[in-house]
Amino acid sequence: MRVALKFGYDGSRFWGYQRQPDVRTVEGDMIRAMKKTRMILDVEESSFQGSSRTDRGASAVGNVAAIDTGFKKGEMLKALNSNIEDTYFWGIAEVENDFNPRYARQRWYRYHLDKDLDLDMLREASGLFLGEHDFRSFCKKDDKPTGRTVDSVALTKNEEFIKFDIKAQSFLWNMVRRIVSAVVKYAVGEISGEDIENALGGEERDFGLMPAHPLFLMDVSYGFEFDVELPIVHPAFLEDHERALLRTELYSMLKERAE
Q1: How high is the pLDDT of residue 142?
Q2: What is the DSSP letter of 241?
Q3: At how many degrees (to 10) do helices 119-127 and 193-200 cross?
Q4: What are the catalytic residues?
Q5: What range does the domain containing 68 cover?
Q6: Residues of the chain with pLDDT under 50
Q7: Closest by alpha carbon to 7, among 28, 34, 26?
Q8: Straight-line distance from the first to the last Cα atom of the chain, in angstroms, rounded to the nearest whole number
Q9: Residue 52 DSSP SS3
């Protein structure tokens, strides 16, 4: 049986997402919990695959991983949550044998901005990123093609934050944080719309990089639904004021999915 698992985590507790020797990572903790419960015996044999490698310091509400397992499906979420810290498994779905979570229909990221920024100016700049563009000036350089298509951008304001929501099928490394940096610089008058348009047309520019901790991977979608189960979390998590933002986003997502 192959299953997809939906999970969130507190990025401030880890040295990044991808497993590495000698440091604590999200992926490393997941694999240890899966082996401890004998959900998997070997990473390769179980075809363990993840959807999105978030930046070091960034958190997630709805990331996805998939494994082959003989473990009873109805007991998997409880078993994982009982054997892991700072990661919260809340969704599960049985999938096709060849399912790879990297091939998603859409990814949704949210960045939390200072509430005192000019919302109209932020929206003006954000609209420039819609559609297909060359994002070479909005990513950490590697050998990957830099063309991407942004499906939607939305900004909403509450008493604490301006929430910057952006959705696309795939993102480049640091792409969201660099887009947000450019949008903020436009809103405060440091750059023009023409500067952004020229960069999206392929001109090399550097608009800076926003901090990782206000960035959340909110969800990854595939066209099928996950069975949702509220994770049993440590009481300290519920009382930890430093993690209030993660708690709010995680539980609002769970409430929405459970309704």
Answers
A1: 77
A2: G
A3: 30
A4: 55
A5: 2-103+223-258
A6: none
A7: 26
A8: 28
A9: coil
CATH number of 231's domain: 3.30.70.580
* SS3 state of residue 2: strand
Res 248: pLDDT: 79
Predicted pLDDT at 78: 93
Q: Who's near 82: CB < 8 A, 6+ residues apart?
A: 232
The Cα–Cα gap between 249 and 247 comes to 6
The 10s digit of each residue's pLDDT in 17-40 is: 998 888 999 999 999 999 999 999
Q: Does a structural domain hold residue 237?
A: yes
Instruction: Give the closest residue to 82 by CA, choosing from 144, 146, 39, 21.
Output: 39
- The string of DSSP letters for 187-223 reads HTTSS-HHHHHHHHTT---------STTEEEEEEE-S
Q: pLDDT, tens digit, for every residue of 194-213? A: 999 999 998 999 999 999 99
Residues pairing with 93 in the sheet: 4
Number of separate domains in the chain: 2
* Helix%, strand%, coil% for the chain, nearest 5: 30, 25, 40
Do both 227 and 99 map to the same domain? yes
- What confidence score (pLDDT) does residue 252 get? 75
CB distance 29 to 50 below 8 Å:
no
pLDDT score recorded for residue 246:
77
In a domain, 34, yes or no: yes
User: Tell me, what's the pLDDT at 236?
Assistant: 60
Reading the block at residue 33, the tokens are: 């919990």
* pLDDT above 70: percentage of residues in the chain: 93
Q: Say which CATH number the domain at 191 has.
A: 3.30.70.660
